[in-house]
Amino acid sequence: MQTANRATHLPQTVEPRNPGMPLDLDWVMRANANRSAIERRAAQLPARRSVKKDHQAAWLARAISCIDLTTLAGDDTEGRVRRLCAKARQPVRADILEALGLPDLTVGAVCVYHDMIAPAVRFLDGSGIPVAAVSTGFPAGLSPFHLRVAEIGESVAAGAAEIDIVISRRHVLTGNWQALYDEMRAFREACGPAHVKAILATGELGTLQNVARASLVAMMAGADFIKTSTGKESVNATLPVSLVMIRAIRDYHEATGIRIGYKPAGGISKAKDAITYLALIKEELGRDWLSPHLFRFGASSLLGDIERQLEHHVTGAYSASWRHAMA
Ligand SMILES: O=C[C@H](O)COP(=O)(O)O
């Protein structure tokens, strides 16, 4: 378990962080993914879940606590980040939170580009909510390697407690697992005490087998979390890709005893989809993973729909969606 360090916003690890391990190419090459079985299982998931009333509210509150509330737009301003941080501190109307018995509920983190780290840290001061920064030439990851490493250092110095790096997709597409491992290792080292999420950009990796192998290599190289997407690919988080990544996390845990976090990101905007993801995590990895220390949604608009559902749960009426536009 980890707890937020309110003084520094850096996560404190009670159980050890993932130290990584030497690249085990035999294991990587054994990793496979049976597409039709995975798609069959993924297709059953939303239909099998029908969570009602109090259970639904509890799942949705859990989902909020696991959101990396995100703004990653070229026209981001301090004003937008200030509003986002206010929403992160109080994600749902105070009376609704009181009625749910969760007056202190917050999101898991706020996720921004480098230039917005300092304002976000300021606006979140005293809240214990960490700032996550996308890095390494996000979203394509094609800037010079030394600049990608330097960017991580600058973002940590600016106050980011979590760094979301992007991998070089070409290393996966050409099967250069050593290059992927070395890159990830260097990124992890540059992060120092900040936790590192490895964005695989699964929509650009070609096959589920590549997703399985890239997941393993990222974990062997020390990733604290593996994350599906930047939100900028044409295909972002999906349930089949999630199954593959979650099962890689399970294999890594069985082999090493280390728990790696999972972050689906991009295109998750409905409360019912959030519940499907949480149910998937519970079924495949167990309750331990249903915590912001091991699970996050990367999402810019999911909170708005969850808030509407919670308002309906408490008041019996839906509010207009424009009232939740900030999330
Ligand atoms: O990592 C987070 C994503 O960029 C957010 O994607 P979204 O805007 O589709 O929710």
From TrEMBL:
Enzyme Commission number: 4.1.2.4
Alphabetic keyword roster: Lyase, Schiff base
**Keyword presence, Lyase:** yes
Q: Name one GO biological process term.
A: carbohydrate catabolic process
Which domain of life does the protein's organism represent? Bacteria
In which pathway is this protein known to take part?
Carbohydrate degradation; 2-deoxy-D-ribose 1-phosphate degradation; D-glyceraldehyde 3-phosphate and acetaldehyde from 2-deoxy-alpha-D-ribose 1-phosphate: step 2/2
Keyword Cytoplasm among record annotations: no
Gene Ontology, cellular component aspect = cytoplasm
**What catalytic activity is recorded?**
2-deoxy-D-ribose 5-phosphate = D-glyceraldehyde 3-phosphate + acetaldehyde
Query: Which GO MF terms are attached to this record?
Result: deoxyribose-phosphate aldolase activity
Family annotation (Gene3D superfamilies): Aldolase class I
The family note in this entry says: Belongs to the DeoC/FbaB aldolase family. DeoC type 2 subfamily.
Q: What is this protein called?
A: Deoxyribose-phosphate aldolase
